């Protein structure tokens, strides 16, 4: 625990325990930076520090937070934690794919019998608390819930003849957090990995229906360089009490 955490308010007590796995085990090839994008600077602090703060908010009552990192970056993260205010968490080494990293995070939660677990991208540093809370609650009520938003652009499907328009009213852009009953997520991650998995909902959906929760357009995933500029502007706006 960071000494500055000692005086923070106690976590909210909840009947159903809440856990979170923050996956930050990727290398950021699309960003093309000199280090993984989760360590890049966003308004004076590494992206991942911002992301963790979203989940250490005592109002959420998360009992255990697991951070998954590339094995070769564990020392880098330790140095970051020594310099920045980061709440209590455990660290595990990830795998070659996001799926393998989530599995490693789940293994860290093996001693817990039950609860609801959130899986969240370490590179989504702007997720509003209301979205996290709503996703945990929906998973508590329905077993599996993911945050998603309506597409703002028109969407076309590629075909052999060229392309055709899709009805975007029937489409959703999926974000994280993605929250699940702990036992359900464990069972889903015992099945073999498929190349079609892009998120946790795609791993779980053969076992259980996925409930969609209203996400937020500010909850962007930092993927390519321009996302950092947008994230910085959004962060400034979200810190302005007029906007939040
Ligand atoms: N082996 C992996 C791959 C991805 N992730 C995490 O999953 C989230 C979403 O993945 P993505 O944005 O694709 O991150 P990268 O894999 O780092 O990026 P890229 O695909 O551009 O290499 C990120 O927080 C990333 O760190 C992970 O934990 N382990
Ligand atoms: C999990 C995710 O962020 C939901 O939108 C997304 O699927 C991650 O995809 P990526 O290819 O790893 O960026």
Automatic annotation (TrEMBL):
SUPFAM superfamilies referenced in this protein's UniProt entry, alphabetically: Nucleotide-diphospho-sugar transferases
Root EC class: transferase
Involved pathway(s): Isoprenoid biosynthesis; isopentenyl diphosphate biosynthesis via DXP pathway; isopentenyl diphosphate from 1-deoxy-D-xylulose 5-phosphate: step 2/6
Reactions listed under catalytic activity: 2-C-methyl-D-erythritol 4-phosphate + CTP + H(+) = 4-CDP-2-C-methyl-D-erythritol + diphosphate
EC number: 2.7.7.60
Site features described as Transition state stabilizer, chain residue numbers: 30, 37
Biological process annotations from GO: isopentenyl diphosphate biosynthetic process, methylerythritol 4-phosphate pathway
Record-level Gene Ontology MF annotations: 2-C-methyl-D-erythritol 4-phosphate cytidylyltransferase activity
Superkingdom: Bacteria
Keyword terms, alphabetized: Isoprene biosynthesis, Nucleotidyltransferase, Transferase
Site residues (Positions MEP for the nucleophilic attack), renumbered to this chain: 168, 221
Pfam family, one: IspD
Presence of the UniProt keyword Ion transport in the record: no
Function as written in the Swiss-Prot or TrEMBL entry: Catalyzes the formation of 4-diphosphocytidyl-2-C-methyl-D-erythritol from CTP and 2-C-methyl-D-erythritol 4-phosphate (MEP).
Family (UniProt): Belongs to the IspD/TarI cytidylyltransferase family. IspD subfamily.
Protein's UniProt name: 2-C-methyl-D-erythritol 4-phosphate cytidylyltransferase
């Amino acid at each position: 625990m960071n000494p500055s955490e000692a005086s923070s308010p106690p976590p909210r007590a909840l009947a159903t325990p809440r856990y979170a796995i923050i996956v930050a085990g990727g290398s950021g090839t699309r960003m093309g930076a000199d280090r993984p994008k989760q360590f890049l600077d966003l308004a004076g602090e590494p992206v991942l520090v911002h992301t963790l703060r979203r989940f250490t908010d005592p109002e959420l009552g998360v009992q255990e937070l697991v951070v998954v990192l590339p094995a070769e970056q564990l020392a880098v993260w330790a140095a970051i934690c020594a310099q920045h205010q980061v709440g209590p968490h455990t660290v595990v080494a990830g795998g070659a794919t996001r799926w393998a990293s989530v599995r490693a995070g789940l293994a860290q939660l093996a001693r817990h019998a039950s609860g609801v677990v959130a899986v969240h991208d370490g590179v989504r540093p702007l997720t509003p608390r209301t979205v996290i809370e709503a996703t945990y609650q929906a998973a508590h009520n329905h077993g599996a819930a993911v945050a998603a938003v309506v597409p703002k652009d028109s969407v076309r499907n590629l075909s052999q003849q060229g392309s055709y328009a899709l009805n975007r009213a029937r489409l959703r852009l999926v974000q994280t957090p993605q929250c699940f009953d702990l036992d359900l997520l464990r069972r889903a991650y015992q099945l073999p990995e498929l190349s079609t998995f892009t998120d946790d909902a795609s791993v779980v959906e053969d076992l259980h229906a996925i409930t969609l929760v209203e996400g937020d357009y500010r909850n962007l995933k930092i993927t390519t360089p321009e996302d950092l500029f947008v994230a910085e502007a959004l962060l400034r706006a979200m810190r302005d009490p007029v906007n939040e």
